[in-house]
Structure formats: structure tokens, C-alpha cells
Write a structure and sequence with these properties.
alpha+beta; Jelly Rolls; 20% strand
């Protein structure tokens, strides 16, 4: 299939829905104080997001693709060897096909292509004042393994939009600098052996759940199918976590952070310099310089994500152009930030090989969905 501009009907629908869109800011205003109060621990929030109910369903996902919109998709399913495996899934085959055999449809980056999801993510960026991405997951009924136990580098905030799903979340504290990457990717590539979960709950429509970065979690369904949105709070992804802050200070003469009970900085850090200094319990010139640099980096990432999520054209070609711009921008920012953490100064000139790899990634995602690049 050749890439084309979005059909005029899809463009018209995207513009029309602006006037009738869901008030995501109201949902996030209720959720933010609750998450702030339990920032370092998993928590369940009942009936906190009625706006989410029915906002994204398998029918709306199918309609988006049938109308010319792009979605990057994978399908997870039980596997005898590893327990669970994923593979690319062509969305034009339909969600019914994806959910056959107790499969789970995995849609990463839905805020980049689905207008309602973009509005949800933009409201979240404003509410949390931190980098955030949005994924969507759909699973049919009676799936004993919708997702196996695994941890993520992001803080995970789930909104149940359709049906119900069982969630189990395990406490991962403490976190040690020497094994941080292992903790944040636990269960991806090898099975986890875990004890009693910290939380074992069934999410229903309008409920929300929060799990801090690094806390393993697993999902399953019973008699209902399930669709949920997952907001990823990306502190560790972009070097805005406690251990990265400590490394930046250590490069300037302070001691390293070896162990902590949380990966993410306190709720309003790092974009708020005062909150970061309060966490550090210091106000010297070095601490201020580091806190300001972290706030500036956080602000630039949030602004770049907002540009990625602001669109009218949801077509494959338009997504490719916006994603490549985001990938190149964010790579420049992260490289400069990593150099600052190490105590060095780096220009933001992006290596041509990184630009090429970003372009190849976008091409592969489109090809997996059956779109040619001519």
C-alpha cells in the first residue's frame, strides 16, 4: 500500500472531535494528588477516571486504522518455551484476529497517532510536568497470561477504559545502583520467580493503578475482555531519576548514591528546581547548577513530546515525519544531558549514524504494517 495524505474524511473527523473530546484534564487533576501521596509505592484508585470509560475500545482502534490512521502493533501470546512471546502484528487484520488464542494486542506510542490518546497524553504532560508516553493494551476474556511478570523503567499508571483485568504488582525495594538496569528490565527475556504480590486487584472501567518504576507486574483476564491505557512516566528513560542526579553531583565532588527505595525523584522534581533542592537538602552553587540543568532537560523533553502529540494528520506518512523529528531531537537532548551528568560538555550535533538508525526504525515500523515507502 502506498503512503498517502490522510483521507479527507479522517481529517474532518479529527477536527470535529476537538469540540466533543473527553475532558482528560479533569481525570488527571483527580489522579495526580493520589499518585503524589503514594509516589514510591504501588496504589489502586477506584472510580477515579470515569472520563476514561469507553474512550478507547477495540472498535475505536479498528475504526482508526480503517479510516487511514497508523498504529504500530505487536501481539503477545502464551508460548511453551518462554511462557510468553511477542511478534509484529498487522493492524489491518483487525483486533479480533489479534485477540485470538488468548493473545494480547500491544500498541506502543498510541499518543503519536490516535487523536483521543494524544489529547490524553497532552493533558498528562501538563498535569505531571514530566516526560510521559502512552501505550494501549487489549486482551480477550479468559487469558491466564495477558502479560507475564516483568518490570519497566517507567512508572506505570494504568487507566481501565473497557472491561476488566486482574493486576498483580510486586514490591521491588530496595534499588541498588550496581544492579539498577537489571531491576528495571526484570522479566524481559527470562522468567521471574516472585513471592506474594504487594497488590492483587481487578481493575474495572474507570479505575486506575500506579506502579513505580522497577516494580514487577503481571496481568490476566477472566470473563471480560480488557482494554487499558498505560501512561509511562519516563524519568529513568531520560536520565531524570535519583541515580542520574546523584551521578551528576558525584562528577562534581559529591558522593555517589548506592541504594534507595525509589528510582524516580520526588513528585515535582526534576522540572521544579526548588523541589529538587529540597530533596537534596542543600542549596550550594553546585546543587543549584545541577538542579537547573535537570529542570532544563526535563522541560525540553516535555516540549518535544508535546510536539509529537500535537497533530491533525494521523496517516502513516505524517507519523513517520513527526516521529523522526522527535527521535532526532530527543537523541540530541539525551546525549547532551548524559555528557553533563558525566561532568563534561557536549555539543548537540547528532551523529549521522544515529539519524540513519532513527529513519530505519520508522521505515521498519511502517513496513510491519504493510506500507511501502515510495
Amino acid at each position: 500500500m502506498k503512503l498517502r495524505s490522510m483521507p479527507w474524511l479522517l481529517r474532518f473527523v479529527a477536527l470535529l472531535t476537538i469540540a466533543t473530546s473527553i475532558q482528560w484534564d479533569a481525570a488527571w487533576r483527580r489522579i495526580v494528588p493520589k499518585v503524589e501521596a503514594t509516589w514510591s509505592e504501588a496504589s489502586l484508585m477506584r472510580d477515579v477516571a470515569p472520563e476514561a470509560i469507553g474512550s478507547v475500545t477495540t472498535a475505536t482502534l479498528d475504526a482508526h486504522v480503517q479510516g487511514g490512521g497508523f498504529l504500530s502493533a505487536r501481539r503477545g501470546a502464551p508460548c511453551a518455551d518462554s511462557g510468553w512471546e511477542t511478534e509484529p502484528f498487522p493492524m489491518r487484520s483487525g483486533t479480533t484476529k489479534a485477540l485470538e488464542g488468548h493473545g494480547t494486542l500491544i500498541l506502543n506510542g498510541v499518543a503519536e497517532t490516535v487523536p483521543e490518546c494524544a489529547r490524553c497524553a497532552l493533558a498528562a504532560l501538563d498535569a505531571f510536568e514530566a516526560p510521559a508516553s502512552l501505550n494501549c493494551y487489549a486482551t480477550g476474556p479468559n487469558a491466564a497470561v495477558a502479560a507475564p511478570p516483568h518490570a519497566d523503567a517507567q512508572g506505570v499508571l494504568v487507566l481501565q477504559t473497557c472491561g476488566s483485568q486482574r493486576w498483580r504488582v510486586w514490591d521491588a525495594r530496595p534499588f541498588r545502583a550496581s544492579e539498577l538496569n537489571t531491576k528495571l528490565t526484570a522479566g524481559k527475556g527470562s522468567a521471574l520467580t516472585l513471592g506474594e504480590p504487594y497488590l492483587d486487584v481487578v481493575l474495572k472501567e474507570g479505575d486506575a493503578l500506579y506502579a513505580p518504576a522497577g516494580w514487577p507486574h503481571a496481568t490476566s483476564t477472566e470473563e471480560d475482555a480488557s482494554v487499558h491505557l498505560t501512561l509511562g512516566l519516563d524519568h529513568a528513560i531520560f536520565g531524570l531519576d535519583r541515580f542520574s542526579l546523584a551521578r551528576a553531583l558525584a562528577a562534581r565532588g559529591s558522593s555517589r548514591l548506592e541504594v534507595d527505595d525509589c528510582v524516580a525523584l520526588p513528585f515535582w522534581s526534576p522540572i521544579n528546581v526548588g523541589a529538587t533542592l529540597q530533596y537534596l537538602e542543600r542549596n550550594d552553587a553546585v546543587a543549584r547548577d545541577v538542579a537547573v540543568a535537570f529542570a532544563a532537560h526535563a522541560y525540553r523533553i516535555v516540549e518535544a513530546q508535546a510536539r509529537l502529540y500535537e497533530f491533525e494528520d494521523a496517516s502513516p506518512a505524517a507519523w513517520r515525519d513527526r516521529w523522526r523529528l522527535w527521535a532526532d531531537e530527543s537523541c540530541r537532548y539525551v546525549m547532551a544531558h548524559n555528557a553533563f551528568i558525566a561532568g563534561a560538555f557536549a555539543l548537540e550535533d547528532l551523529d549521522e549514524e544515529i539519524i540513519r538508525q532513527n529513519d530505519l526504525f520508522a521505515q521498519r515500523e511502517l513496513q510491519k504494517q504493510g506500507y511501502s515507502m515510495s
